[in-house]
């Protein structure tokens, strides 16, 4: 359920989306609040579930997984047991950075990070060994035109 945010809440969230490492003093200054007022607002945003976490964003090239694959999956099995097996397999594979159940012609879409094509092939074999699928195809990202974790406020 959407929460009602005022302009100050949005300002705080914009700043945190771009740099969650700022001290409370720096955040308060950018938000135009006292340190205590800013701290209270951040705590309320956390308690309301608006701020879920403050993770570090890592560089995939530096960490050896520069290749992004968008994997599209169709399945003929739609029963609860298959879905549970598929979800467990996807969650157990660190190469999968996001997974979505879709509407339309495709059943699932995965974003996968690997070192190279050989590593993708290993991923492909491991996934299809864990759960049967009707069709699986991948497209490989050649250039990132936009990639952000920031939500529109």
Descriptive notes:
The protein is an alpha+beta fold. It folds into 2 domains: 7-47, Winged helix-like DNA-binding domain superfamily/Winged helix DNA-binding domain (Arc Repressor Mutant, subunit A); 67-140, Alpha-Beta Plaits. It has 5 helices and 4 strands, in the order H-H-H-E-H-E-E-H-E. It has helices spanning 7-18, 24-31, 35-47, 80-92, 117-130; strands at residues 67-74, 96-101, 108-114, 135-140. Strands 2-3-1-4 form a 4-stranded antiparallel β-sheet. Strand 2 (96-101) and strand 3 (108-114) form a beta hairpin. It is elongated, with a radius of gyration of 20 Å. The mean pLDDT is 96.
Summarize this structure briefly.
With 153 residues, the chain is an alpha+beta fold. It contains five helices and four strands, in the order αααβαββαβ. A four-stranded antiparallel sheet has the order 2-3-1-4.
């Amino acid at each position: 359920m959407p929460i009602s945010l005022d302009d100050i809440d949005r300002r705080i969230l914009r700043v945190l989306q771009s740099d969650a490492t700022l001290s409370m003093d720096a955040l308060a200054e950018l938000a135009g609040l006292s340190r205590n007022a800013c701290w209270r607002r951040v705590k309320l945003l956390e308690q309301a579930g608006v701020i879920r976490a403050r993770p570090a964003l890592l560089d995939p090239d530096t960490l050896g997984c520069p290749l992004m694959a968008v994997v599209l999956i169709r399945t003929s099995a739609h029963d609860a047991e298959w879905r549970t097996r598929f979800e467990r397999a996807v969650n157990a594979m660190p190469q999968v950075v996001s997974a979505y159940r879709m509407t339309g012609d495709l059943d699932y879409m995965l974003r996968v990070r690997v070192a190279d094509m050989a590593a993708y092939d290993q991923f492909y074999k491991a996934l299809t060994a864990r759960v049967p699928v009707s069709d699986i195809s991948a497209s490989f990202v050649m250039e990132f035109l936009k990639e952000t974790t920031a939500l529109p406020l």
